[in-house]
Specification:
Largest sheet: 9 strands, antiparallel
Number of helices: 5
CATH superfamily: Electron Transport, Fmn-binding Protein, Chain A
Radius of gyration: 19 Å
Structural class: alpha+beta
Number of domains: 1
Order of helices and strands: HEEEEHEEHHHEEE
CATH topology: Pnp Oxidase, Chain A
CATH class: Mainly Beta
Helix content: 25-40%
CATH architecture: Roll
Amino acid sequence: MADDPFALFDTWFAEAEASEPNDPNAMALATADVAGRPSVRMVLLKGHGPDGFVFYTNREGRKAGDLHANAHAALLFHWKSLRRQVRIEGSVRRATEAESDAYFASRSRDSQLGAWASDQSRPLDARETFEARVEAVRAKFENGGVPRPPFWGGYRVIPHAVEFWQDRAARLHERRLFTAGPEGWSEGLLYP
């Protein structure tokens, strides 16, 4: 048994980066609105450590609306090549403006322009409308850098539970659950 889920996550994530053919940082993000109606979608992990797991998005889209109404979320990493998954549950808070600025500056110019052009999660009448918006934003910023939109930034999931699942023969899987408590992290096993 161990007492640090972040060290184990670092090990498993490094192994996933070496073996997964596409997006080892892809994770399912589950949220619920104020009425408890769930929603799940894939996002990309962009930072992690003892302070939490970070992703970035439009703060006016559905996922952000859910997080503003109910600041709790669950994450799921599934690394098929390793026959492993990691489930994380926790509270959510915004990443700092400095963190959001730094990550936005690291994105490709086209991704930066897309962030400005998208009304994420809202109805779109035709693909051509979105493409025209991208071109309008491209023209607006053609002579300089692309600043981070005020409606775009990061969120940090601060875990209170982290489960590591390892596939085993005959469905006799191994499940290790870390839970946060006043004295730090504790670990136990779960039946498969």
